[in-house]
Known about the structure:
Helix content: 25-40%
Bound molecules: adenosine-5'-triphosphate
Structural class: alpha/beta
Mean pLDDT: 81
CATH architecture of the largest domain: 3-Layer(aba) Sandwich
Shape: globular
Low-confidence stretches: 1-47, 160-165
Order of helices and strands: HEEEEHEEHEHEHHHEHEHEEHH
Distance between the termini: 38 Å
CATH topology of the largest domain: Rossmann fold
Amino acid sequence: MTAPFLCHMHKKTEKNAVFHMDFTMVTYSSHLKMIDLGKPNNVGKGGGTLDILKLEKVIKNFGGVQALRDVDLNIRQGSVHGLIGPNGSGKTTTFNVISGVFSPTSGKVIFDGKNITGMTPYEIAKHGIGRTFQIPRVMPRMTVLENVMAGMYLRTSTDIMGTFFHLPFKESKQEKHIRYKAMEFLEFVGLDKSAGRWAGDLVWAEQQTLQIARALAGEPKLLLLDEPTAGMGAEESEFIENLIRRIKANGTTIILIAHDVKLVTRASDIVTAIEFGSKIAEGLPEEVKNNPRVVEAYLGTDE
Ligand SMILES: Nc1ncnc2c1ncn2[C@@H]1O[C@H](COP(=O)(O)OP(=O)(O)OP(=O)(O)O)[C@@H](O)[C@H]1O
């Protein structure tokens, strides 16, 4: 396994964002005790034959708005699975249902063979689903390194007394190890030189990238990337595309939402297109991209 990337992650969800932010900060200040950061989670390098995630007839209504209508989705272990669709088609709602921000109105979410429907975001993250957000959610008054360390809280135990009485010279071997691992994640995403900066001082693209590092620090088996290249220039997008490949190469399954259809086509093994909360096409990226229904719904005829 290539270097730094052995871990899991999770992240805050929209519903519990504030709570989780506080929780991670407390957990970080208490200086975490490691459990196990040593093993890769997934077997496949190029996509296996098992479905790590299944959505079965998922419906999500917001009052009269039917955001998801009977969605079935199978995500193959080790793959990059693109999710595309026009604005308001239900992509982020799909992520919110998978990560526990919303319970589905009906239907099931099966992850790694377990029914996770209705679990809390924390429980789901603990099971191994990490995510990022369209608008980066970093903790601005923590350093870049601390943000990543905070992302490790799912895989650590907390010494509560340490929260109150921690002094720098008391840093334990485990705590040093956490710093070391967090630096590895930063190196992996190319932010190691910014480790000591305030996260709030990073530019948008760096904050997006930091979100990914923090997600990886929770050692996810499945990583949900919501518009990871939003607001980025061509060079930065290319970097993220490469990063997606490297994450996949380390065995983590990815679901990728992006408006940039070229990125999705290049980076994904399979693509699902949705419109008005329903699946309208699924298959190999080029096939989906050229599907007339998708072109009409989403791409525009000149794409
Ligand atoms: N919390 C909410 N309360 C009410 N309606 C919501 C909520 N979240 C999403 N919706 C509605 O559900 C539908 C799907 O929204 P969603 O954000 O999932 O679409 P999307 O495909 O991610 O859009 P975009 O590409 O613009 O991010 C939209 O009609 C949206 O207004």
